[in-house]
Amino acid sequence: MAFAAIGSNSTQTEQVPRRRSKVAIILLLPGLAYLALFFLTPLVSLVMTSLQTPVEFGDVGQYQAAFQIENYAIVVGAYWPHFLRAFGYALAATFFALVISYPLAYFIGVKARRWPLLQALMLTLVIAPFFISFLLRTLAWKQLMSDDSGLVSALKTLTILPADGHLTGTAFSVIFGLTYNFLPFMTLPIYTTLERLDTRYLEAGADLYASPFTTFWRVTVPLSMPGVVSGTLLTFIPASGDYINASASFLGSAQTQMVGNVIESQFISLLNYPQASALSVLLMGLILLIVALYVKRSGTEDLL
Amino acid sequence: MSSMPKSLPEDPIIRQLVMQARKSQLSRRHLLQGAGVGATALALAACAPSGGNAPQPATDVSDTDKSLTWSNWPAYIDEDDSGDYPTLINFESSTGIKVDYKIDIDDNNTYYGTIKDQLALGQDTGADTFCLTEWMVARLIRFKYVQELDAANIPNKKNLTPALLNPDFDPGRKMSLPWQNGFAGIAWNTEQIPAGLESVDDLWDPSLKGKVTVLSEMRDTMGILMLSQGVDIASGDWGADEYAKAIELLEKQVTSRQISGIKGNEYMQDFVSGDATAAIAWSGDITVLNAEAGFEKWKFALPDSGGTLWGDTFVVPMGSPRKKNAEILMNYYYEPEVAAEVAAWVNYITPVEGAQAVAAEMFPEVADNQLIFPNEETLSQAHIFRTLDTADDQAFNAEFQRVKLGA
After folding, report:
1. In this complex, do B406 and A257 lie within 8 Å of one another by their Cβ atoms?
2. Phi then psi dihedrals of residue B347, to 5 deg
3. What average pLDDT is seen over chain B?
4. Domain residue spans in chain B?
5. Quick check: B24 pLDDT over 90?
């Protein structure tokens, strides 16, 4: 649904003639079958796993079908701080990504229109990090922020960081990693809306004695909202479920663990599939809820 | 996990009988419980490793397919300056078996997590043999996930150190064969800590705040912490209380940020980058780091309260169609000359008898190295973490993970 928001136009839905055709249904079938097979089936399986209970006298990782709703209560009781942290970090990362991406997208999409080559080059640069593995890039940041790195020494010399301070393993490094890793997901949707921004609107604003700021706020921002909404969704949703950046092996520590790390630990280390599934179902539900509220508040239901 | 199973008698025969007796009663109750959930759930439950129709060994194609994939831990085989493995090259040229050596294990649980579904279905996991730690191998054998080895293909098995021949999970070593044994102890940066460390308590010195890492291998970290609290981890006379005390210590050091991370082999990167100056570490890793640094930058020791002794063991998963090739490989590494060459490089304890005599001639500098060829005095300092029953295993691991997650 987030992709649909990219560059969709709120007026076009009314113009579509309301005529049901068999062709449309037949064309939809592969998509529906795909959804049923690759979305519904795993979802049902996930929900059922989340209600399983250990086989009595069973071995590690052995569970059986049941209706153990307590699994949910247990994981909420034990890991609610990890949910809060996940959404807090994801929110912060989304905010910073927006602050960085908007001017960038504006420059590429509006200011650089006169130089198509520059525009293409800059877009390539935005996507370029994807050519290198996500894990390697995150590890590289871990090295750059390590205690013996020039960055940390400089910050300590400037007394921004206390003498025994660290960058890695802090909330700062995790939010930094999330922002960095999901930045293109924010930049590209905003770029696609700004790229089609009709600059005559801006001229009209100026002709009507609006200050550049007012024009930006009243004209550019509303017109780019579809991009902003999809960009924030594309950043927030994967960021809140991320477990790489916050992992102690990458940029995090025991104090920065997000709900994704809990799910990983429950699933891989403890083979506690019911609790891992319960956490996943909850995470999914909470994200849906947050996204629904957000979309409702930003008044963009018709975009999705 | 609200209802932890009641503990069963330790004796395996009585245990079996009790389980049999309870089975009929259990299955009825669980059928009722599960009735509302539907058939799909039952189908899914069938995927769980619950015995029944255990996977069968794959048909061996070793005679026609001269290849082999071997998964192992980092810094765990002899390596020359160009990144090749001399003993493996020698093996390939003498047997004609092409070996794909993969370094893709850095944590027992993580590796198990990535291959467990194939194991349960008896499918090829992508590795014909891998070396996991004994407690995990015990689980693989219990679940019937690994093939029985053909002793006829491994005549050099006679060189196995007798003390390792009859572990409780595999008497006679029918399914497994040790690769290396080693110590977990304490290690430190000699430039930052010239005075060195002696005890586990030295790790909690305020000057090391945020510079200490411990292993994500629960038995090594918790074993060393319990030893420092005076618990004999090899004996059966400790339980949840002693474990809880050690967890409390770990949690305190993690919460106060004395310990910066609980990790697998990645602590080596932290040593190199300067993020860690002291650690609970594996003996051989430190030698490898020093070899890369070019001098003895780091030092490893067993703490005064003792370290842990662990073993990593070859197994062949059910789905591997190249068991014989794997057996030929094991046989090769049980030649004392080959074992000595590996030991001299990886600096772990070789399970092969006769390797020390060879090493005394070929690599005199390592023959006296206590970390490779420990004498009785050193071995008395190292302890094997006792085998845990399933309930304790799960409960102890859950506690360890809880601290790791900061929950």
Report:
1. yes
2. 60, 35
3. 86
4. 67-181+310-366, 182-309+385-404
5. no
Q: Which of A108, A110, A89, A100 is nearest to A177 (CA)?
A: A89
For residue B140, give both structure tokens: 């693989």
Chain A nearest-CA residue for B270: A146
**Model pLDDT for residues B227-239, shown as the tens digit of each residue:** 999 999 988 889 9
pLDDT band at B5 (very low <50, low <70, confident <90, very high): very low
Interface probe, candidates A64, A70, A139, A255, chain B, greatest B C-beta count within 10 A: A64
- B262 at interface of A, judged by CB pairs closer than 8 A: yes
Measured between CB atoms, does B25 come within 8 Å of chain A?
no
- Position B18 scores a pLDDT of 53
Q: State which fold the A2-11+78-303 domain adopts.
A: MetI-like fold (1.10.3720)
Q: Mutating which of B401, B402, B403 best tests the A interface, going by the most A Cβ atoms within 10 A? A: B401
Taking the CA of residue A152 and the nearest CA in chain B, the distance in Å comes to: 11
pTM of the predicted structure, to 2 decimals: 0.82
Q: CA separation (Å) from B173 to B2, B102, B354?
A: 37, 24, 19
Q: CATH for B182-309+385-404, among 3.30.70.2190, 3.40.190.10, 3.40.1190.10, 3.40.50.1240?
A: 3.40.190.10
Interior angle at CA A85, CA A83 and CA A86, nearest 5: 65
**CATH T-level fold of B67-181+310-366:** D-Maltodextrin-Binding Protein; domain 2 (3.40.190)
Residue A153 at interface with chain B, using a CB cutoff of 8 Å: no
Percent of chain A whose predicted confidence (pLDDT) is above 90? 73
Residues in A 29-68 with any Cβ partner in B closer than 8 A: 44-45, 48-49, 51-68
- Token output for A82: 């990890």
Which residues does chain A have within 8 Å of residue B30's beta carbon, measured at their own beta carbons?
A: 64-66
Contact A237, A97 (CB under 8 A): no
Rg value, chain B, Cα: 22
Task: Write the DSSP string, B325-377.
Answer: HHHHHHHHHTSHHHHHHHHHHH-SB--BTTHHHHHHHH-HHHHT-TTTS--HH
Do the two domains B67-181+310-366 and B182-309+385-404 of this chain adopt the same fold? yes
The A residues from 230 to 289 touching B (CB cutoff 8 Å) are 248-249, 253-257, 261-262, 265-272, 274-275
* Contact map slice: A 75-114 vs B, CB within 8 A: 78-79, 81-82
Contact B192, B277 (CB under 8 A): yes
Q: Do B347 and B369 meet the contact criterion of CB atoms below 8 Å apart? A: yes
Cα angle value B269/B272/B278 (rounded, 5°): 90
Q: In a 3-state reduction of DSSP, which class is residue B256?
A: coil
Q: Compare B71 and B344 and report the one with higher pLDDT.
A: B71
Contact present, B340 and B362 (Cβ < 8 Å):
yes
Cα–Cα distance measured from residue B369 to residue B372, given in angstroms and rounded to the nearest whole number: 6
Would you list the domain boundaries of chain A?
A: 2-11+78-303
Task: Indicate the residue of B34, B49, B262 with minimum beta-carbon distance to A248.
Answer: B262
β-sheet bridge partners, residue B280 = B186
Distance, in Å, from the CA atom of A231 to the CA atom of A298, rounded to the nearest integer, reads 13
**Can you give the length of chain A in residues?**
304
ipTM for the complex shown = 0.83
8 Å CB contact between B68 and B128: yes
- Residue A33, helix vs strand vs coil: helix
